[in-house]
C-alpha cells in the first residue's frame, strides 16, 4: 500500500501579486522553492489563511531572493496582495518509507525571504 504524505511546506508566506491574465500557476521565489524541495511544474496545494480558500496548481520559478509569490490565471481570483498562504506538496510512498520520511519545512520571514 502507498499513501500520500506532506513532502514540502512553505509556511505563512505573503502574496506579492495576482495576475489574472497569465496562463496559470503560482510563481514562487526560486530560493524558497529550493529550500522547500519543490521543483518547477510540481503540483502544489495552496491554503489561504486570510480567506479560507484552498486550491491546487503547479509551480513556476520566480527570481531568486525576490520574495515573489504570485498567483496566476484563475487562481488570482482566490487571493489578494498581502494574503498569508501555506504552500504544500505531497509525495507518494509506502507506509514504511513514510514512517522515517522528514518533509522540507520552510518558515520565511515577513519579506518572504529565508532567515
UniProtKB/TrEMBL annotation:
Pathway: Cofactor biosynthesis; (R)-pantothenate biosynthesis; beta-alanine from L-aspartate: step 1/1. Substrate binds at residues 57, 73-75. Binds 1 pyruvoyl group covalently per subunit. It is an enzyme of class 4 (lyase). InterPro entries: Asp_de-COase-like_dom_sf, Asp_decarbox. Catalyzes the pyruvoyl-dependent decarboxylation of aspartate to produce beta-alanine. Belongs to the PanD family. GO terms for biological process: alanine biosynthetic process; pantothenate biosynthetic process. Its cofactor is pyruvate. Its EC number is 4.1.1.11. It comes from Psychroflexus salarius. Coiled coil: none annotated. This is Aspartate 1-decarboxylase. The active site is at 25 (schiff-base intermediate with substrate), 58 (proton donor). The modification Pyruvic acid (Ser) is found at residue 25. The lineage of its organism: Bacteria, Pseudomonadati, Bacteroidota, Flavobacteriia, Flavobacteriales. One of its GO terms (molecular function) is aspartate 1-decarboxylase activity. The gene is panD. It is found in: Cytoplasm. Is synthesized initially as an inactive proenzyme, which is activated by self-cleavage at a specific serine bond to produce a beta-subunit with a hydroxyl group at its C-terminus and an alpha-subunit with a pyruvoyl group at its N-terminus. The keyword Lyase applies.
Amino acid at each position: 500500500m502507498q499513501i500520500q504524505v506532506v513532502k514540502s511546506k512553505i509556511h505563512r508566506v505573503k502574496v506579492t501579486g495576482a495576475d489574472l491574465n497569465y496562463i496559470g500557476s503560482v510563481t514562487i521565489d526560486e530560493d524558497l522553492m529550493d529550500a522547500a524541495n519543490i521543483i518547477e511544474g510540481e503540483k502544489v496545494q495552496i491554503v489561504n489563511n486570510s480567506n479560507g480558500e484552498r486550491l491546487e496548481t503547479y509551480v513556476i520559478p520566480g527570481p531568486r531572493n525576490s520574495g515573489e509569490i504570485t498567483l496566476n490565471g484563475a487562481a488570482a481570483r482566490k487571493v489578494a496582495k498581502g494574503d498569508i498562504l501555506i504552500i504544500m506538496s505531497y509525495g507518494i510512498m509506502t507506509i514504511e518509507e513514510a514512517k522515517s520520511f522528514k518533509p522540507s519545512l520552510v518558515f520565511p520571514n515577513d519579506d518572504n525571504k529565508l532567515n
